[in-house]
Design goal:
Elements lengths: L6 H16 L7 H6 L10 H4 L12 H8 L9 H5 L6 H9 L3 H8 L6 H7 L11 H6 L8 H14 L15 E5 L3 H12 L3 E5 L8 H4 L8 H14 L2 E3 L10 H6 L5 E4 L5 E2 L12 E3 H9 L18 E5 L3 H12 L4 E6 L10 H10 L2 E4 L1 E8 L5 E14 L5 E5 L5 E4 L2 E4 L3 E2 L3 H5 L26 E3 L2 H4 L4 H21 L1
Parallel strand pairs: 1-2, 1-4, 2-3, 4-16, 6-14, 7-8, 7-14, 8-9
Antiparallel strand pairs: 5-15, 10-11, 11-12, 11-13
Amino acid sequence: MSNCDTLHTLDAEAKEILAKINARTEPLKKSDRLAIKPLAMPELNPSYRARSMDEVSCGFTESQAMAEALRCLDCKRPFCVEDCPVHIDIPAFIAKIAEGDFKGAIAKIKETSLLPAVCGRVCPQERQCQLNCTVGKFHKDVGKSVGIGRLERFVADYEREYGEIVVPEVKAPTGKKVAVIGSGPAGLVTAADVRREGHEVTIFEAFHKLGGVMRYGIPEFRLPKEIVDREIETLEAMGVQFQTNFVIGRTRKLMDLLHKDGFDAVFIGTGAGLPLFMGIKGESSVGVFAANEYLTRANLMKAYDTQNADTPMWHGKNIVVLGGGNVAMDAARMALRLGAEKVRIVYRRSMAELPARAEEIHHAQEEGVEFCILQNPSEILADEKGRVRGMIIDRYELGEPDAKGRPKPVKLEGQSFEMECDTVLVAIGNGSNPLISQSTPDLKVNKRGNIELSDEDRNKTFVEGIYAGGDIVLGAATVILAMGEGRKAAKGINEYLASK
């Protein structure tokens, strides 16, 4: 049996469900669909995957996908579509899966989304399209909603496996040129939607490889980079051009693109990659890193591939990650795969308040990551050589809700203790890189450095011809929210160019 040791059992369960349904003579009723049990995703064995860069989730089989699709009720009011930031026609593509028309399903998705293989893997469906699913509400458990993300991933993988990538149609050339700054999810979606209208599009990327946070932030075991490459190839097939190693604000000023280089509009999608630190004593010690830098070295620069990469990497053995979001989970799980013997996540609230996806938390626990909740460091301790040797940890309890509605952590006096470690990875959030705003004074930014918009329905900035979206506007968000921003910006750009 393969390392994905649940695959055969789960596939057999799905085939049994399909056999019973196919044996029926009358059509499925709502009650029949609600009675079909939700299907689990086949996964690698935790003891194997904790030291492997192989993708954790193995994906649905054809039988699983069809059986899961039959659970959809095709509601008159599809809350799933309303809750999807890019408004994919979810009931329509799921209906095609139930019929076995997998090519038709991916074609339906690509009417509105160009990154289905990515979104099917990393989007927080439980907080978006699956949150208000009628099936989940019937069972009073969002975990029993129709597995929309898993189905989206299945048809995207099916398309890639059989080599028949659907390339969206591009209209006749308009003679207009658009610059897209950043090749993350917001930039790629903007580029696709603008290119569909026949405009020339060039994407400018600061790194030497394309993909933005999908490349440098999300680990291989959650999102294989081959998938990112294939999604970008679709844009190339549409005629989108790319320039890498191009830093706007350094290589070229933003306004020069408009006034000197002949671009008619610009989209800024540079993300929020400026790491935040806690500002506590000892934070400059050797062995303290931003989780973003740690992940960039491992993902973009492939530090895990010691046979083929010479990327300098700090290989700690006793690692503590500060924070509770998806970046913290990624950093902790990557640390295990890079050889750490002990990995802990220190978080100042309880498990219920962890902002990371439940699936990522579950996977981290399965793989051996320890969670130290209601704790937070007040000082990082270093040895005589300035290297991390531990932290002073304060204990907390939960108090009254803060402005965001989350219970506020309250320090417990007299209960501090010392925690040994040799590495600290800080994953408490990111700010916006100020380079573009500093070199483009007409852009308006808020106190956090995020670009402000004059029209939020079209993601228009206060400078004519310049649009922005994704984390540079929202702050750190999700791939699908960034895509939604890109879609709005593309709409604004296309309307603006049509008016010219």
